[in-house]
Each structure stands twice: as structure tokens, then as C-alpha cells.
Specification:
With 106 residues, the chain is an alpha+beta fold. The protein has one helix at residues 2-20; strands at residues 24-29, 32-33, 37-41, 45-50, 58-60, 67-68, 77-81, 86-92, 99-105. The protein has a five-stranded mixed β-sheet, with no helix packed on it. Strands 2-1-4-7 form a four-stranded mixed β-sheet, with no helix packed on it. 15% of the residues are buried. It binds copper (II) ion (CU).
């Protein structure tokens, strides 16, 4: 009896921790990002998903927050952590019209 209750508590707490840690998800579909602008806390991460049938190449040249994921195949999902506060311009190196802003707050 006691063991059963403990087991249930472990499962419940595991689920709620997972829900709290869930990243905002940015989709790439029709060669656009699903959001033009998102706000996250410093140290937080976004999950970028490629829903297109072509590769994308997400990157940023914003000073202090530079990154380049390289070619992201269709169906792939990649997390990017933002460690510096400020506005980070995120683009696709393949499709110049794909742009979004990540506002990273302290
Ligand atoms: Cu692209």
C-alpha cells in the first residue's frame, strides 16, 4: 500500500517537472518561422523543428549569441540555448526571407 502511493508520487512529480521544463517550440513550415518574435529567459532554450520537406540552416550572427546549426534535415528537432540577454536575430542561411527575433531577458 505504502509503496504504491510513493510510486504514484514519483510519477506525478516527474510529469510536472517535465511540463515546467518544456521549451517553446518554433516550427519551420512553408519556409517561414512559426513566430516572428519570442521572449525567453536567459539560459532558456527554444526547440526548432523542421516541418518542411527541405533542409533549413538556422543560425545567428548576433554578437555574443552567434550559433550555426548547419543543415537541419526535414523532421529534425534541435534545441538552442540562449545564454546572453538581448535581442538575437535568428535567420536561415538558405532562405533569406526566414527571419525571427528572440528576445532574451535577464
Ligand atoms: Cu530555410
Amino acid at each position: 500500500m505504502h509503496k504504491t502511493i510513493l510510486f504514484a508520487l514519483v510519477i506525478l512529480s516527474g510529469l510536472s517537472a517535465g511540463a515546467l521544463a518544456a521549451n517553446q517550440v518554433i516550427h519551420q513550415q512553408g519556409r517561414v518561422f512559426s513566430s516572428e518574435s519570442v521572449t525567453i529567459k536567459k539560459g532558456g532554450a527554444l526547440t526548432f523543428v523542421n516541418d518542411d520537406s527541405i533542409p533549413h540552416n538556422i543560425m545567428s550572427g548576433t554578437k555574443g549569441s552567434e550559433f550555426n546549426l548547419g543543415s537541419q534535415a526535414p523532421g529534425m528537432s534541435t534545441d538552442v540555448t540562449f545564454k546572453e540577454a538581448g535581442d538575437v536575430q535568428v535567420i536561415c542561411a538558405i532562405h533569406p526571407r526566414m527571419k525571427m527575433m528572440v528576445k532574451v531577458t535577464d
